[in-house]
Every structure is written in C-alpha cells, then in structure tokens.
Design a protein that fits this description.
mainly alpha, two-stranded antiparallel ribbon, 3 helices, 2 strands
Length: 147
C-alpha cells in the first residue's frame, strides 16, 4: 500500500535521488552563505580601517598641508629656474601659469594666509619659501608655521 503519510520518515524510506537532491541543494546554500559572510567580513574590515586608526580628521589636514606646501615649493622652484629670479608674490605663480590657483591652507581654511619667506640675497629679491599661517601645534608637537 505504500508508506503512510507521515512527516517524519526514516532515511531508508526516502528515495536515493531525493536525498542527493536535498544534500546538493543544502551544499549550495551553505557555500553561498559562506561566500556572503566572507564578503561581509572583508567589507567590515575595510570600513573599520577607516574608523580605527587609519586617519583622524586632524591627520588628514596635516597630510593635506604637507602636500600643499610641497606643491607651492615646487612651483617656486620652477618659477625661479625658468625666470632666473624668484617671484615677487604668490599670486604671480598663478598669473604666470605655474599654479591654477593658490591652494588652501588646511589649517586656516584660507588661501591668503600663507607666509612667504623672502630671499636674503639683495641681488635677487623674492619669495624663496612658503609656510603655513597657522600658529597651532601639530600632532608631532611642532607648529604648522615651522613646517
């Protein structure tokens, strides 16, 4: 007569193809779940690096200041080499095409607070270096204006 309708069947009562199908389906689901959890773990790890120890906002501003100072000093050198004299103002770096615009000092959040250092050579006066206009102290314990 066959098997009575019962929701709890013995394994020997289940046909072989059904068991294989069930196990194959379960293996796929488990493999998909493992891959999904690994992807989530990687994303959490990447996100946690940004939150814990990668960079604070202050460190980000310090890096931006270093990069802006490097850019300004490079433009000063290029101007001086090409024209055989240092520039008379930072605005001349922009007007003569060495910079598209003056970068913003990230510590003061203005582009007009840069402190220009003038040449001590009377035969070639002009700007030879530039520093931040901020008097705040960095995470290293030095003033930004000394960088």
């Amino acid at each position: 007569m066959g098997h009575p309708r019962c929701y709890f069947m013995r394994e020997s009562d289940v046909p072989g193809w059904a068991t294989r199908l069930f196990l194959t389906t379960m293996k796929r689901k488990i493999a998909t779940l493992v891959v999904a959890l690994c992807c989530v773990g990687v994303l959490v790890f990447i996100g946690a690096r940004g939150w814990y120890g990668m960079e604070s906002p202050q460190q980000g501003r310090e890096v931006a200041l270093q990069e802006n100072l490097r850019l300004l000093r490079l433009a000063l050198r290029e101007y001086t080499i090409a024209r055989h004299r240092p520039p008379q103002s930072l605005d001349s770096l922009v007007s003569d095409g060495y910079l598209k615009r003056l970068p913003i000092d990230p510590m003061t959040e203005h582009n007009d607070t840069w402190v220009a250092q003038w040449s001590s050579d009377p035969t070639s006066p002009g700007i030879v270096n530039v520093r931040s206009g901020s008097q705040a102290v960095s995470g290293r314990g030095t003033k930004y204006s000394d960088w």
